[in-house]
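Subject: sequence -> structure tokens, single chain

Hey, anyone have a minute? Need the predicted structure for the following. Not urgent.
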Amino acid sequence: MQPDEDGRAQLVGVIEEALGHALSADIRDAFLRVSRAHFVPRYFKQVQPGEWASFPTEGSVYQDRPFTTKVNTKQMPCSSSSQPSIIAAMLEALDLFPGMQVLEIGTGTGYNAALLAEIIGQKGSITSIDIDADLVQEASRRLREVGYTNVRVKIGDALGTLPEGQFDRVILTGGYPQILPAWVHCLRPGGKIVGNLLGTLATPLFCLTKYPDEVRGSLLSVPCFFMSLYPQSDGGKDTIAPGARIALAPYLAMPLIEVGKTTMFVEALDDLSLRIFLDTHLPGISDAAPLYRWATTTSVCYLPGVCSLSGDVLTYG
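Reply:
Had a minute. Here:
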């Protein structure tokens, strides 16, 4: 084995340990075939407040960790390479087959697109969109260099208009506080969409399937947090989309009853359903000491106008 191949094999082992089970053969083979070092040669690290510097990833590229890969003019991270074990969990949830048509929202480095391409094969195709022209150009170059001809990378706004009914699968590599109708309409009947719902307390991964009369799915028991999607008109200005901001004006107009801090519910916040409930009913609530808290059991709660969660079933609409 070459050093890079050895690193890929080591990464597969780390991913399987993190997830607690062996990867399926197609996903395992994809991680073994795709060089993360090729797609993520450098990363950014904050060296002091407001200042980031670029460093080579070198051997650390095959650790199960994310990397900040771009910083905007405000010295804020605006693109990253996701943690491989989270990528693997999302690929598992997508339930991919050779020959599928897949839409990836958030091209980033192109690494995830390469993994998708390996799984669906030459008879399938990947359309990957990103609002950042520089990222699109660089990812396209890296994909071409290693021979991926079934991946089309282009500039596109995931918060705008998207083609309807053309894809078997949709994967979002950025987070958003809503499941937009445009994403669901992209799917063919029986199609699946996997993404990240961004709240202030809960940031769960979701997987939805499009049925003839409804869209239904569940939350994944994998803790994660993605950078927010933001519209093309806001590119380079901010890393938080206007739609991801909480509209606090109606709540600020309400009479103030009580202000305080509490440690009473620290253990209770281990329950994902409670975190989602608080996110929904107390906009702007935050955790003074945010940690990755997770639970696989959920109770009934509703996200008005977005989706409903009952037991472990997530229903859109």
